[in-house]
Write a structure and sequence with these properties.
rod-shaped, disordered N terminus
Length: 426
């Protein structure tokens, strides 16, 4: 059973959704940014034209001439005062210049865009809103030139015309908008991460409750027929005390029933906090090896079981659950060995490494594809044609949740074998 797990599908969907939202947000932000930049350029162009209008010397010349004409007309008694008044009112056009100065050039709430005006020689003649840039106006000219094309203005009359250029930077709004997609992407990633973590937590809780319920129900259902079988075995022994062959068969049946009872006890311990005892794991491992060696002929394989226990350190373990975990690992290693393997073996090594007890289970099987190394401990994952894919998942739960240890793949190479490692704290 080699399928893509639902959690992987959910990861792909969430990542795709995150990329889609981030991409759409980035595109929309760029469109909005371009429109605001166009509006800002129009604002700077308006400011530049107002600046050009305000420093035009012709306005002052016109005002001076009109005042002189009005003053001259007052010296002639025959000229009505209304004519002088009309001329002075015409001179009041100066208020237009004041309006441009007070309402367009000076206000800080209209155009908070950093602006620098330079002449043809590159000398800075005016600037505004560059205090926050922490740079000299001359140094900012090249920076602003790389951002926007300068706006040309002409100062003076036709005989004394002088070309100047307005360089401008970016307003705080533009600067904020440039970083906004990254902030939004981070927030989206955080929200999706929290959502996925919550979903995984709920899913794991549901799976755990389902698993616990199934195991306890299985243990309960096994209990009644096992008790009955024990009674039948005892009756068989009592009625055949003189028949050695029958007693031998009854004894073997009793051994198998005892093992079934042990399996039921294993299931019954799932979901509850097991009792841990300080024990040496060697006798338990020997028991598992003996059982698996008796099972090898029925597998139709000739597999050598090697053992190298180099320490007698004791660890806190639950004998039934620990035996179950080791049995699952050894069985998994044996199932991975094909009949065509030249040197079929399963090796169990126990050593001490600092404050850890390491149990390595190596086989000469077919190995595990690298892309499956992170999946093999997940419930339901199996590369076999038959099987529920729960053995390694159960082993991981027993070792990590009940014994505070770790179980992982140390090394695996296709066609050469795999090494599983169980690490238990001393």
């Amino acid at each position: 059973m080699n399928t893509l797990l639902p959690s992987n599908r959910i990861k792909i969907i969430l990542v795709s959704l995150l990329i889609l939202i981030a991409g759409a947000s980035f595109i929309y932000n760029q469109i909005l940014l371009n429109r605001i930049m166009q509006q800002e350029r129009a604002s700077v162009e308006l400011w530049a034209k107002a600046f050009e209008f305000n420093v035009d010397p012709s306005h002052q010349e016109i005002s001076t001439k009109l005042n002189m004409v009005a003053a001259t007309l007052r010296t002639y008694p025959d000229v009505p005062d209304s004519l002088s008044r009309i001329i002075l009112e015409a001179e009041s056009a100066k208020f237009t210049q004041d309006f441009v100065t007070n309402e367009i050039i000076r206000p800080e709430h209209l155009f908070n865009i950093p602006v620098i005006v330079v002449d043809e020689s590159g000398f800075v003649t005016a600037y505004r809103f560059i205090e926050d840039e922490n740079m000299n106006p001359e140094d900012l000219v090249s920076r602003f030139a790389s951002l926007h094309e300068p706006i040309a203005i002409t100062l003076g009359d036709a005989q004394r015309a002088q070309n100047q250029y307005v360089y401008y930077g970016e307003s705080p709004m533009i600067q904020y908008l440039r970083f906004f997609p990254y902030v939004q992407f981070g927030i989206l990633a955080l929200l999706i991460g929290v959502g996925y973590t919550t979903y995984r937590s709920i899913t794991r809780s549901e799976q755990s409750n389902l698993w616990v319920g199934m195991t306890k129900e299985a243990a309960h259902q096994l209990g009644t027929p096992l008790s009955s079988i024990y009674g039948w075995i005892q009756l068989l022994k009592d009625q055949n005390k003189q028949n050695g062959e029958t007693l031998k068969i009854a004894h073997e049946i009793e051994n198998d029933v005892t093992r079934l009872k042990g399996i039921a006890e294993r299931f019954n311990k799932i979901g509850s906090q097991p009792e841990l005892k300080e024990l040496c794991p060697e006798p338990i491992i020997n028991q598992v090896i003996l059982y698996m060696e008796n099972r090898i002929p029925r597998l139709g394989k000739k597999i050598e079981v090697r053992k190298a226990i180099e320490t007698n350190e004791k660890v806190m373990i639950n004998p039934e659950l620990f035996q179950w975990a080791i049995e699952n690992l050894i069985k998994n290693s044996m199932d991975a060995i094909n009949k065509s393997v030249a040197d079929p073996f399963v090796s169990i090594t126990v050593i001490r490494d600092g404050n850890q007890l390491l149990i390595d289970i190596e086989d000469s099987g077919s190995g595990i594809d690298r892309k499956y190394l992170k999946e093999i401990f997940k419930p339901g994952f199996s590369t076999k044609k038959r099987g529920w894919g729960l053995g390694l998942s159960l082993t991981k739960r027993i070792i990590e949740e009940y014994h505070d240890g770790k179980v992982f793949v140390v090394h695996s190479e296709q066609g050469k074998g795999t090494i599983f490692r169980v690490s238990l704290p001393l």
